[in-house]
Amino acid sequence: VQLQASGGGLVQPGGSLRLSCSASGFTFDTTYMSWIRQAPGKGLELVSSISADGHYPYYSASVKGRFTISRHNAMNTLYLQMDSLKSDDTARYYCTKGTGPLATRARGQGTLVTVSS
């Protein structure tokens, strides 16, 4: 299983970023996918999830209305559009497959998002 997240960077508060995750080594189009994040000194947090067919997205209360999750099954790619970014969104973002405890899910190296003026 390989999960390669990209698209992070430094952005000012109120700005936007689009994260991508390229997946391989499993059947992407039948797999429930999620974005999780870990802020400095904090634990893992589930940010957003999406069903295999792209329906039924879930968002945590902290990002609902600002983030949009999507997927392109033909390209084995998961996306996270992040708008109206806040300093509290600063974290390393990972894409994960399946369900279960966050710490046990397969994830790659992630991509770092820093929201700062």
What's the structural blueprint in terms of helices and strands?
Layout lengths: L1 E5 L2 E3 L5 E8 L8 E6 L5 E7 L7 E2 L7 E6 L4 E6 L8 E7 L13 E5 L2
Parallel strand pairs: 2-10
Antiparallel strand pairs: 1-3, 3-8, 4-5, 4-9, 5-6, 7-8, 9-10
Name the average pLDDT.
96
Number of helices: 0
Most strands sheet? 6 strands, mixed
Alpha carbon gyration radius: 13 Å
Q: What best-fitting shape do the alpha-carbon axes yield?
A: globular
Which residue ranges are poorly predicted, with pLDDT under 50 across at least 5 consecutive positions? none
Q: Whole-Å distance between the termini?
A: 36 Å
Strands of the biggest beta sheet: in what spatial order?
A: 2-10-9-4-5-6
Q: β content, as a range?
A: over 45%
Number of strands: 10
The sequence of SSEs as H and E is EEEEEEEEEE
* Class derived from helix and strand content: mainly beta
Share of helix among residues?
under 10%
Structure description:
By secondary structure, the protein is mainly β. 0% of the residues lie in helices and 47% in strands. It is built from no helices and ten strands. Strands 2-10-9-4-5-6 form a six-stranded mixed beta sheet, with no helix packed on it. A hairpin with a 5-residue loop joins β4 and β5 (44-50). The chain starts with a strand and ends with a strand.
